[in-house]
Design brief:
The chain is α/β, with parallel strands linked by helices. It is 33% helix and 32% strand. The chain contains 6 helices and 13 strands. The strands form 3 sheets. Strands 1, 4, 5, 6, 7, 8, 9, 10 and 11 form a 9-stranded mixed sheet that branches. A two-stranded antiparallel ribbon has the order 2-3. The protein is globular, with a radius of gyration of 17 Å. Bound molecules: 1-O-pyrophosphono-5-O-phosphono-alpha-D-ribofuranose and uracil. 1-O-pyrophosphono-5-O-phosphono-alpha-D-ribofuranose (PRP) binds next to strand 4, strand 6, strand 9, helix 4 and helix 6. Uracil (URA) binds next to helix 6.
């Protein structure tokens, strides 16, 4: 798949292994999700647009490239995607933040949208959609559809763990977006949970259950 990056950096691998550990508690889980997002984001933001800005050094005035945070929108898929927002904001503090609320029906695993609020001028921004888990891919495909319906064009999707089924579905439904995954796991189980995965990302980030 041409538009997919799977990371092989040892720090990302190490931190994902810690995330998987069921004895990792909420506080460490949140910290790890944010740290992994920073490491992945460094690569995913490689083509962030720059603009020329005047800077005065102790020696002289000069025009130098700076990132314009106004041109970036980070859009977490609620709830678990919220855990990744701080990681992107560490890299680009002035980025705008949108939110898409989705939950998967426990029986059918079909996603349902309950909220969508995006920054204005969405069509002019680079949009980073975040969700730690790409399982069946239903939530990610629907979230990108919502963003495109509202004019979003330049879209990247970041997940920490992906299942082959979800990655294929997202890549086929939206061949124009870049997809970044911290790891590609083995498969989905009968409840559409990723194996080996890390369990329910939202519950582990927020300490519910
Ligand atoms: C989880 C996860 C993704 C979705 C992935 O959210 O955070 O959004 O499932 O599954 P899919 O690829 O099969 O659609 P969930 O619906 O459990 O909601 P939550 O984050 O509020 O717990
Ligand atoms: N959502 C999760 O949080 N975990 C999975 O393994 C699949 C979907």
């Amino acid at each position: 798949m041409k538009n997919v990056t799977i990371f092989d950096h040892p720090l990302i691998k190490h931190k994902i292994s810690l995330l998987r550990d069921k004895s990792t508690g909420t506080k460490d889980f949140r910290t790890l999700v944010e740290e992994i997002t920073v490491l992945m984001g460094y690569e995913a933001l490689r083509d962030l647009p720059l603009e020329d800005c005047e800077v005065e050094t102790p020696i002289c005035k000069t025009v130098q490239p700076m990132v314009s945070g106004k041109k970036l929108a980070v859009v977490p898929i609620l709830r678990a995607g919220l855990g990744m927002v701080g990681g992107i904001l560490t890299l680009v503090p002035s980025a705008k933040v949108g939110h898409i609320g989705m939950y998967r029906d426990e029986e059918t695993h079909i996603p349902h949208e309950y909220y969508c609020k995006l920054p204005e001028n969405i069509g002019e921004r680079l949009i980073i959609v975040c969700d730690p888990m790409l399982a069946t891919g239903g939530s990610a495909v629907d979230a990108v559809n919502l963003i495109k319906d509202r004019g979003g064009k330049n879209i990247k999707f970041m997940s920490i763990i992906a299942a082959p089924e979800g990655l294929k579905k997202l890549s086929e439904a939206h061949p124009d977006i870049e997809i970044y995954c911290g790891n590609l796991d083995e498969r989905l189980n009968e409840n559409a949970y990723i194996v080996p995965g890390l369990g329910d990302a939202g519950d582990r980030i927020f300490g519910t259950k």
